[in-house]
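Bug #77: duplicate submission created two jobs. Keeping one. Sequence:
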Amino acid sequence: MSAVAFFDRLLHPFREAALAPAPVQAGSTAPRLGFEYGIGRMGLTEWNQGTDGSGNAQNRAAQLGELYDAYLACPWAAACVDTIARTITAGGVQIDWDADTGEGEEIPAKPANVLALQQLLNYVNPREDIRQLLRGCLMDLLVFGDSFIEVVWFLGLPIALYSIDVPSMRIIADAHGEVEKYVQITEQSQRAEFAPEQIIHISLDSPRGGVYGVSPTRKALLSITTWLFFKATQKELGRKGIPPTLHVDQPAGTSDADMRRWDSQYRQRNLGPRNIGAPIVTRAGAVIGELQPAKLADIESTLTQCRDEGLTVYGVPPAQISIIESGNLGGGTGEAQFKTFQVNTCQPYAQALLEKLNFALLRAFGITDWRINFGAIDWRDSQIIEGIYDTRLRNGAWTLNKYRDAIGEPPVDGGDDPVLVDRQNLVLWSDMARMSEAMISKNAAPAAAAGIDLTAAGINMQPDQEPEPLPPALAAIAGHPPGHDDGQDDEDEQDPQEMWDLVYQRVLAEALARV
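Kept job's structure:
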């Protein structure tokens, strides 16, 4: 072996180790190459929060202020935002075991780190509880597209969570969108800096990416603005008493001053709710003609159309915000609408918030097999729920004690045995084998009596063998006293079908006697 080959063989393991990629730890990130939408070469700074895509710098604080005003001014937009946030958080917040399938398996006791996280959720800060905090986060997501939670750390663990005003927050990032820090500048020029681990940033989906999300309020802003204009028009019509549009033909020679005086008197005497019904008085040959009445129906139709467009963007069925429309084709029942609302609207927003919350808090406490979830509430009608419970009890899926536990009643003796309740009978599942044999024998008796071989069908009636002596109890029922064998056909002898019916009734009676 040459010296070159020897050293090549000697250094081969070290060369492979040097060329092998380093293992990536969970939660670690590597520098990226791509760029985010709207971020220039200098990245995001305190006073430059990106562009609108056409190169124009966007005033993010002004845009968010406009969305906030739209939320306050438009009642159906506020109703959609509030309904989604309240529905998601109605069941509270809980910590669930990852392996819990809901099939009744035993859930282990919460370890110390999970109990520490539970203590944080029970007391997040002196002003808010966890439900209020997350409900506010959801409202921020729906109005602004982003939400921020401040995390207070002590000795390496989170000890408090606080909500932060979204319009005052600024993300400081490089040209690739990698966050370096967060800065808050309030309207009163108060300033605070946060490290990335001190802020939990939740954002909604954005079609072109970027560090900020796009909210449904921003998507519905055109419909909201149109609704506000028409609502203002309706308000002005109401303020003026819903006057018609008039054309006034003043006589020739009327001066401009006289025309202005007449107009002023008309506004004072005939416009406004107090002047409804007051006649329009003219003189000197002035002629008044009505061009068109006030189009209130058109205004109402436009308002309704804008509202429906907004509900579509928010993903909220009309019934969820107390809009009941009779004869609404395609709307489905109330329960179907609520299920669609839960699956298509509430759950995506809830999971967007929980994913960020779990990633930040579970990693901080070293938790791997537990998750923070929103509690579920059964919104179904009570009659539907009771019908489901009754069906489960009758088909043996539930025992009586399981049923009583579901409705909050204590168990009873014998309630742990499942039963089958058909239209007429009640049979223990432990007696189903005997019940099945009795039913098969009853139904196959006529065929066996006719001499048909049922062995191929799996029914062994043994028609060709000499029947075994009946037990004394059954012999008395069948009309054959013990030892009775005259070898002659007896016209009074019981029919085979009737005999098997009696046998079936006896077996059924014995089974029922043990219930």
